[in-house]
Design a protein that fits this description.
Helices cover 75% and strands 0% of the residues. It is mainly alpha-helical.
């Protein structure tokens, strides 16, 4: 991985933090009263138990034990594995919401913050494209495979951010508190990524460092914004640009 790429990623992280601090001054973006649960401990236990189940399934997917055949064209097989794992995790969470009769806002999709979150997400997308130096590649045009990968990454980001920053972080924060809840979520997200990272042992440490920075940043963004959409839009663009580099 080139040092220039890492420097651009570092500038992206600093830019996102700066924008979020400025956006946090807006009444339309500022997180309103934190969502609470009647039984925080129970919610934390349930959410972490569900995470354990989907993590086990993801490990089997990445090992190729129970993975459906690839049916999407022009995407790397590893990305296909990640897509399937993300969709399975999302399906489990949606089923849990349905069975327990909990609203979608308890998974980070509150209606009140939808529009502000979308605006924030678009701002972070344009900022990421500019700071990562991808604007000229977009002007020159992108291939069909790159367009397909962008769509896949958008689906992955929406699914995983709903699972982790939405469903899990809100419940973990309700139990561990605002000070530590988002950090616990970041740690859980890093664990989720490890089965994918060990597929490339030669670069695992640098990739793990990038994932750790990303996990902390995304959880912090959720803590500040209170909605999944903007975070998912930003993450999809950031991950996609790695493929363009």
């Amino acid at each position: 991985m080139e040092s220039r790429t890492l420097i651009l990623f570092a500038s992206e992280v600093m830019g996102v933090i700066a924008v979020m601090l400025l956006a946090g001054l807006s009444k339309s973006i500022r997180l309103r009263k934190p969502l609470g649960f009647k039984y925080p401990r129970r919610e934390a236990v349930v959410s972490l138990t569900l995470f354990s189940l989907v993590l086990f399934a993801a490990i089997l997917f990445y090992k190729g034990v129970i993975l459906p055949p690839q049916t999407l064209y022009d995407i790397p097989y590893e990305l296909w594995q990640q897509l399937v794992a993300a969709l399975v995790a999302l399906a489990v969470i949606l089923l849990a919401l349905f069975i327990r009769k909990q609203p979608v806002r308890s998974a980070g999709w509150g209606k009140a913050l939808l529009a502000p979150s979308a605006r924030l997400g678009l701002a972070l997308v344009f900022l990421t494209i500019f700071l990562r130096g991808a604007i000229f590649q977009l002007i020159d045009g992108i291939s069909r495979a790159e367009i397909t990968s962008l769509i896949v990454w958008l689906i992955i980001a929406l699914a995983e951010e709903t699972v982790f920053r939405g469903y899990l972080q809100l419940r973990v924060t309700s139990f561990f508190g605002e000070k530590y809840g988002w950090l616990v979520t970041a740690l859980v997200f890093i664990i989720w990524q490890i089965p994918r990272l060990i597929l490339h042992p030669e670069t695992i440490w640098i990739r793990l460092a990038i994932v750790a920075i990303q996990a902390i940043l995304l959880s912090w963004l959720m803590k500040r914004s209170g909605h999944v959409l903007g975070i998912a839009l930003y993450r999809a663009s950031s991950e996609w640009i790695w493929l363009l580099a």
